[in-house]
C-alpha cells in the first residue's frame, strides 16, 4: 500500500520527499535544542558540568592536538580548503555540479549560523574555562565549527555515496561522518569555547543543510531526465 501511494506521487514530489525528510529532522532537532536553551531546561544541567569536566582533565599535549584540529575546521582554514578542493574537483571531473552544491551548502549553513548567533545572542562560556580567553568574539549558539564540519562531511559523504550506492558504503560514510563531527565538537568543548548544546545545534544545522542539498540534487536529476526525454 505504501509503495503504491509512493508511486502515485508526482515525480517532483518523489524527488523532493527524501531531502525534505532529512531537512525536517534537522530543523526539528535544532528547534528542540534551541527551546531547551532558551527555557534553561535540560541542557542547563549538562552544559556547565561537562565544560568543567573537560577543563579539569586538560593536558598540554592533548590541548595542542585539540587546538590543531579546531583550527583546521575553523572559519579561516576551512573555507580555503573547501574552495581549493572544490576547484580541483571541478577541474578534474569537468563537472561543476557537485563542487557547486558543496560550496552552496557551506554558504547557506554559515549564513544561517551567523543569523541565529545574532538572534539568540548567547554568551560564550566564562573566560576561566577557555584555553585562550577572548580569542572567540562571536556569540556561542550554535557552534560555527560544528555547523561547518557537519555541513562539509555530510554533504561530501552524500555526494560521493550516491555515485556508488550500497549498504556498506552508506554505513562507512555515516560512521566516518559522525566520528569526525563528534571529534570537532569535542575540541570546542575541551578548549572551553562552546557548550554541548551549541555543538549539537551546529550538527543539526549541518543535517538540515544536507536535506536541502538532497532536494537540489534530486531536482537537478529530474530536470536532466526530462530534458533527455524531450526529442
What this model shows, in words?
- By secondary structure, the protein is mainly alpha-helical.
- The chain has one domain (19-220).
- 76% of the residues lie in helices and 0% in strands.
- It contains 9 helices and no strands.
- The longest helix has 34 residues, at 196-229.
- It is globular, with a radius of gyration of 20 Å.
- The model has no long low-confidence stretch (mean pLDDT 89).
Defining key terms:
about 230 residues; mainly alpha
List strands and helices in order, with pairings.
Blueprint: H1 2-8, H2 11-39, H3 47-56, H4 60-72, H5 77-93, H6 97-120, H7 144-161, H8 167-190, H9 196-229
Helix pairs in contact: 2-9, 4-8, 5-6, 6-7, 6-9, 7-8, 7-9, 8-9
Low-confidence stretches: none
Mean pLDDT score: 89
How large a portion of the residues is in β-strands, by DSSP E?
under 5%
The helix/strand class is: mainly alpha
Rg, Å, rounded:
20 Å
The span between the termini is 35 Å
Number of helices: 9
Count of domain modules: 1
The H/E string reads HHHHHHHHH
Major sheet summary line: none
Helix content: over 70%
Overall morphology:
globular
- Give the total of beta strands: 0
Short overview:
This protein has 231 residues and is mainly alpha-helical.
Amino acid at each position: 500500500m505504501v509503495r503504491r501511494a509512493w508511486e502515485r506521487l508526482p515525480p517532483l514530489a518523489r524527488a523532493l520527499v527524501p531531502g525534505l525528510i532529512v531537512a525536517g529532522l534537522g530543523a526539528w532537532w535544532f528547534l528542540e535544542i534551541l527551546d531547551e536553551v532558551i527555557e534553561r531546561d535540560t541542557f542547563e544541567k549538562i552544559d556547565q558540568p561537562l565544560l568543567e569536566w573537560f577543563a579539569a582533565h586538560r593536558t598540554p599535549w592533548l590541548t595542542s592536538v585539540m587546538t590543531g584540529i579546531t583550527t583546521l575546521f575553523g572559519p579561516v582554514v576551512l573555507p580555503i580548503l573547501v574552495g581549493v578542493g572544490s576547484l580541483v574537483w571541478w577541474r578534474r571531473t569537468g563537472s561543476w555540479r557537485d563542487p557547486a552544491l558543496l560550496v552552496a551548502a557551506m554558504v547557506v549553513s554559515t549564513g544561517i549560523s551567523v543569523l541565529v548567533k545574532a538572534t539568540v545572542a548567547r554568551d560564550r562560556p566564562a573566560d576561566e574555562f577557555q584555553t585562550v580567553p577572548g580569542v572567540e568574539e562571536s556569540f556561542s549558539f550554535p557552534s560555527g565549527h560544528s555547523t561547518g564540519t557537519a555541513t562539509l562531511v555530510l554533504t561530501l559523504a552524500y555526494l560521493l555515496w550516491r555515485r556508488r550506492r550500497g549498504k556498506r558504503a552508506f554505513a562507512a560514510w555515516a560512521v566516518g561522518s559522525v566520528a569526525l563531527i563528534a571529534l570537532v565538537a569535542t575540541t570546542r568543548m575541551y578548549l572551553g569555547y562552546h557548550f554541548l548544546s551549541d555543538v549539537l545545534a551546529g550538527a543539526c544545522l549541518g543535517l538540515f543543510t544536507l536535506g536541502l542539498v538532497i532536494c537540489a540534487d534530486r531536482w537537478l536529476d529530474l530536470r536532466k531526465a526530462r530534458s533527455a526525454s524531450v526529442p
